[in-house]
Design a protein that fits this description.
alpha/beta, Rossmann fold, 10 helices, 8 strands, 42% helix, Esterase-like, Alpha/beta hydrolase, hydrolase, AB_hydrolase_fold
Length: 314
């Protein structure tokens, strides 16, 4: 079509009334249809029932999009809060891939489809929190109030971290290793907020299978200082701490009346990092950062990216 013909055709359309234009557009363009696709090309999703937790989980496995050698097994990065944490972790992995020694599986643990936001919140409070928390501290009272409003019993409000860790080590990891070439000796754990607290809690457990922990904005006041007590107890009986730990949080969290004022996210991260450095563990790889201009949620993508590069790179 020449320029003149194209101009005339455009003028004709513009000169029509709105109704005539709509009819012409509808006639020229076929109706669009959404076609459901249950699995993203490189993500495979499964449901698994945990006999230990007595509940179902959605497990999403991002498979490396490069050839894998038949006889080899590969590292895996396990994520809590899998309903929304997988995407930023995949982006971080894609950016850091050129600096890493080889392919890696990214696995997200989430609540099954149909779980409401409130239900997910109650699940994660229980699963990520330590036993023995009387919840008489300011943050504990907030948690207790939230559980009561949603009709959750005190016994199921907090204290599920030991059982959740057993679900991961005794049920999930064996199932993953049977289905995928995952090396159970090269595992990393990622967590955000309450999930970040669980990651740090897991680091001090004697049966933890993880070598690296990428933690974003850890809710350090879970358990009323439980992580600092675990660190102190560990230091009394150990001369080394052979793990990698990355902790990052956002600068916007520093002045937040709840996140910092009650949850002690930034100050708790700094205090734990300082205590660990004071032990002078020869094999500990420890990194702590504040992401300028970021908050509680968007800092997670930066933490995953930086944690992968600092702990998992060549």
């Amino acid at each position: 079509m020449t320029f003149g013909c194209a101009f005339l055709a455009m003028f004709a359309i513009v000169g029509m009334g709105a109704g005539a234009q709509a009819e012409l557009r509808a006639a020229d363009k076929p109706a669009l249809q959404l076609v459901e696709k249950s699995v993203v090309d490189d993500v495979r999703s499964y449901t698994i029932h945990s006999a230990i937790m007595q509940r179902d989980y959605l497990i999403s496995v991002a498979v490396p999009d490069e050839p894998l050698e038949t006889a080899k097994r590969y590292p895996a990065f396990i994520l809590t809060d899998g309903n929304w944490a997988l995407a930023p972790a995949q982006i971080a992995y894609g950016g850091a891939r050129e600096a890493m020694p080889g392919p890696m599986f990214v696995v997200a643990i989430g609540a099954p489809p149909g779980t409401t936001a409130e239900e997910r919140g109650i699940r994660r409070i229980f699963e990520f929190s330590p036993p023995g928390w009387d919840r008489q501290d300011p943050f504990g009272k907030v948690v207790t109030e939230g559980c009561a409003k949603l009709g959750v019993s005190a016994a199921r409000c907090t204290g599920g971290a030991p059982a959740f860790s057993q679900f991961i080590t005794r049920e999930l990891l064996p199932a993953l290793s049977a289905a995928f070439p995952i090396d159970e000796h090269r595992l990393s754990l990622g967590g955000i907020s309450a999930g970040g607290f669980f990651g740090l809690w897991m680091a001090f457990q004697p049966d933890s299978p993880f070598r690296n922990y990428v933690i974003s904005s850890p809710a350090m006041q879970y358990g009323n200082g439980e992580i600092l007590r675990l660190e102190e107890a560990y230091a009394r009986t150990h001369q080394d701490f052979p793990v990698g730990i990355y902790m990052g949080s956002g600068s916007l969290e520093i002045d937040d009346p709840f996140l910092e004022g009650v949850g002690q996210i930034v100050s708790g991260q700094a205090r734990l990092g300082g205590m660990l450095r004071s032990r002078k563990y020869p094999s500990l790889r420890l990194f702590g950062e504040i992401h300028h201009g970021l908050g509680h949620v968007d800092a997670s993508a930066a933490s995953y990216a930086r944690g992968m590069r600092l702990l998992l790179a060549k």
